[in-house]
Design a protein that fits this description.
alpha/beta; Rossmann fold; five-stranded parallel beta sheet; 13 helices; 51% helix; 18% strand; elongated
Length: 408
């Protein structure tokens, strides 16, 4: 046999072996992939509009959670891997419902979010009817605490925030409360819960001022508040009195109007003000000198759900979120991180089942045994976070700049 023919045969054999090796690797890879079940967990987040930053925090937390969960599952030899499917709702309830339907068409059975009460309220009936489990990281409306439905919430409902507020005010010596609150279902329910709790603790609550969510000019509402505070102080000078402001982004024009009103009679800045979870960490507030100066002058502590003394796990996730997005993350993003862990482990505990009823039954059991970055994730009979403590934050001035600082 000629040397040339031998070389040709060798080349052909080598090419055959390469093709065979590639085919073998491809088969092995396919087998490995077939041995792993991919679970798609959906997320309904506000990634556009005024509340986009909060959605970005949750997105970052969920992306970190997917990496951590899959690393954990690989380490324990589990055959399940998690993939995330995110939809932007813009905090619009109608859009949230449409995006949930998109996820449902893709076969998603568990969804993290949405973030707002109005969105959860809008999608609840569809989720119940179609067998989709919803885990919100930040919805707190007490009326959405319904046992047996498909909505789970990894934060306590606002009745616990009301207790934290009333307790803090009473411990600060406040005996009389004059509320000002936004006239929507969230504002009304938090106001009623706080009023009932504050009175149960021995305090007195006046009629206060309820304003429309469509209000642009708050001068009239703030003037009415001023008159009520003045009347209360005249009736009992020695009675420690405070204002409770239950608001969202309108906190800035309200505090600006209050500062202007206070320039005449020095009434509104002579009493302490308290805020709620709707205003804590407001970026717009600390960027507005007038509003921020008034907030500093009236102390303005604002509660938000979160462990009073976070552990190393919380701090690690918090710093990772901060590194991905920038700014001060909210605790709801860390709750979203824990929610994805519980969702993934629920699939593991049920063997990757597609049976929604089995998932629904297993999820609270998995949550009860899981200790995440936000602590134990035990849920109550309504599927909401059973235990929770609250941190209080206020605005401080540092070398001419304003920032949020946690109250020890």
């Amino acid at each position: 046999m000629s040397a040339r023919r031998k070389a040709t045969m060798y080349t052909a054999f080598s090419m055959f072996m390469v093709v065979l090796l590639v085919a073998t690797v491809g088969v092995l890879s396919s087998c490995n992939n077939k041995n792993e079940t991919e679970v798609v967990i959906g997320a309904l987040l506000c990634l556009s509009g005024d509340n986009a930053l909060s959605g970005e925090f949750s997105q970052a937390a969920l992306e970190i959670a997917v990496e951590d969960v899959n690393e954990h599952l690989s380490g324990i030899g589990a055959d399940i891997r998690v993939r995330l499917a995110i939809e932007d709702t813009g905090a619009d309830p109608e859009v949230a419902l449409e995006k949930l339907k998109v996820l449902a068409e893709e076969g998603v059975q568990i969804v993290i979010g949405p973030q707002t009460n109005a969105e959860v309220e809008a999608i609840k009936a569809y989720a119940d009817e179609e067998g989709i489990l919803v885990i919100s990281q930040s919805s707190t409306l007490p009326s959405l605490a319904v046992p047996g439905d498909n909505v789970f919430r990894f934060v306590p409902d606002d009745r616990q925030q009301a207790v934290a507020l009333a307790k803090a005010m009473r411990e600060d010596g406040i005996g009389r409360l004059i509320p000002m609150w936004r006239g929507d279902v969230w504002g009304d329910e938090l106001h009623e819960a706080t009023k009932a709790t504050f009175e149960a603790f021995g305090g007195t609550v006046t009629d206060g001022v309820r304003y429309s969510v469509s209000t642009d000019d708050f001068s009239t509402a703030v003037h009415s508040l001023n008159e009520q505070v003045k009347g209360a102080l005249l009736s009992c000078v020695a009675c420690p009195t405070a204002v409770l402001l239950i608001a969202f982004e309108e906190v800035v024009p309200i505090l600006v109007a209050a500062q202007i009103e206070a320039q005449d009679e020095r009434i509104l800045d002579s009493v302490e003000w308290y805020g709620s979870a709707g205003t804590v960490h407001s970026k717009e507030l600390v960027q507005n000198p007038q509003a921020a100066e008034f907030a500093v002058s009236v102390r303005f502590p604002n509660p938000i759900y979160g462990n009073k003394d976070e552990g190393e796990k919380f701090e690690t996730i918090w710093e990772q979120i901060e590194g991905k997005v920038g700014g001060i993350p909210d605790v709801y993003a860390v709750a979203a991180y824990d929610a994805l862990w519980v969702a993934a482990l629920t699939y593991v505990d049920t063997g990757g089942t597609e049976d929604t009823d089995a998932l629904k039954k297993a999820l609270p059991q998995t949550a009860r045994s899981f200790s995440g970055a936000t602590g134990l994730t035990t849920l109550n009979e309504a599927g909401d976070r059973e235990h929770g403590s609250y941190q209080f934050w206020h605005v401080v001035e540092d070398d001419g700049a304003f920032q949020w600082e946690r109250i020890p």
